[in-house]
Amino acid sequence: MVVRGAVGQDNGVLLSLGEAKWDQIMGMGHLERLRHAQVLLAGRGVDVSAVRPACYSGAGFTDELRSAGERGEVVLVDLRRLYEGE
Fold first, then answer.
1. What are phi and psi of 10, to 5 degrees?
2. pTM value?
3. Which own/partner pairs from 64-73 qualify as long-range (CB within 8 Å, at least 24 positions apart)?
4. What is the pLDDT of residues 8-41, one digit of tens each?
5. Which of 9, 11, 46, 77 could cross-link to 56 by cystine, CB 3.0-4.6 Å?
6. CA angle, 56 then 57 then 60, to 5°
7. Percent helix, percent strand, percent coil in the chain, to nearest 5
8. How many whole angstroms separate alpha carbon 41 and alpha carbon 56?
9. Dihedral, CA atoms, 18, 65, 36, 14, nearest 10 degrees?
């Protein structure tokens, strides 16, 4: 999942890179893949200065990933947050 903030006629700044899983508990491996994608995009000249990684899961998150979320390293969206908001 990619979120861009449109500015005028360009594609805008990259705001978020995310991954969604319906039936998997997401963990740090998912966050590491998003971080790797961010590095690859930066290498191609994409402005990643404002990017926030995000994990969307119908099954939940590991404790380690939840801790990363609490530190602001990743946005976590579970079913409750998806349907009810923050």
1. -85, 180
2. 0.87
3. 64/27, 64/28, 65/26, 65/27, 65/28, 65/30, 65/31, 68/28, 68/31, 73/31
4. 656 678 899 999 999 999 999 999 999 999 999 9
5. 77
6. 130
7. 35, 30, 35
8. 21
9. 40
